[in-house]
């Protein structure tokens, strides 16, 4: 087991949760970087959804409320939303994904990041799920599907 990740195998899939991040129940990872945060889809979310074929950003900047979409994406299975885990200002979007949405499947915790945001309340990040809490949530969901 890698020390950088919590890992488990369910069915034929190796599922990984990166340590040192925070997580939403909507399967978004959050990496706090001073007063800013990077957001992306978790490994579980991208595996469950299937291969990404399209992504668009409904906002190009400005304020987003918790639960509002930061990105809309389509997979071979469905059209989905990546939702803001807290009220925030959108500072940067990963426009590379518009031409290469598959980066989310290839590197969900790296080059596949979706947005960089500034939380309205920086402490809201700390109230999100720890890697261990998200790992348990993910395992429970994965075994029920």
Report on this structure.
With 145 residues, the chain is an alpha+beta fold. It has a single domain (5-121, 128-144), classed as OB fold (Dihydrolipoamide Acetyltransferase, E2P) (Beta Barrel). It has five helices and eleven strands, in the order E-E-E-E-E-H-E-E-E-E-E-H-H-E-H-H. The chain has helices at residues 43-49, 96-99, 103-106, 123-126, 131-144, and strands spanning 5-10, 13-18, 22-23, 28-33, 36-41, 52-56, 62-64, 69-75, 79-83, 88-93, 115-119. The strands form three sheets. It has a six-stranded antiparallel beta sheet with strand order 3-4-5-11-10-7. Strands 6-8-9 form a three-stranded antiparallel beta sheet. The chain is globular.
List the helices and strands and how they pair.
Blueprint (H helix, E strand, L loop, with lengths): L4 E6 L2 E6 L3 E2 L4 E6 L2 E6 L1 H7 L2 E5 L5 E3 L4 E7 L3 E5 L4 E6 L2 H4 L3 H4 L8 E5 L3 H4 L4 H14 L1
Antiparallel strand pairs: 1-2, 3-4, 4-5, 5-11, 6-8, 7-10, 8-9, 10-11
Structure keywords:
single chain, 145 residues, alpha+beta, OB fold (Dihydrolipoamide Acetyltransferase, E2P), six-stranded antiparallel β-sheet
Give a concise summary:
This protein is α+β, with helices and mostly antiparallel strands and 145 residues long. It has helices at residues 43-49, 96-99, 103-106, 123-126, 131-144; strands at 5-10, 13-18, 22-23, 28-33, 36-41, 52-56, 62-64, 69-75, 79-83, 88-93, 115-119. Helices cover 23% and strands 39% of the residues.
């Amino acid at each position: 087991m890698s020390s950088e990740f919590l890992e488990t195998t369910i069915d034929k899939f190796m599922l990984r949760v990166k340590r040192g991040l925070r997580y939403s129940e909507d399967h978004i990872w959050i990496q706090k970087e001073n007063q800013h945060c990077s957001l992306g889809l978790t490994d579980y979310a991208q595996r469950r959804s299937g291969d990404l074929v399209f992504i668009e950003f409904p906002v190009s900047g400005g304020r987003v409320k918790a639960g509002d979409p930061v990105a809309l994406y389509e997979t071979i299975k469905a059209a989905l939303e990546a939702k803001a885990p807290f009220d925030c200002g959108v500072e940067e979007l990963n426009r590379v994904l518009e031409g290469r949405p598959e980066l989310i499947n290839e590197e969900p915790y790296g080059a596949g990041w979706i947005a960089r945001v500034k939380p309205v309340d920086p402490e809201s990040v700390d109230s999100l799920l720890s890697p261990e809490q998200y790992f348990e949530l993910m395992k429970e969901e994965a075994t029920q599907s």
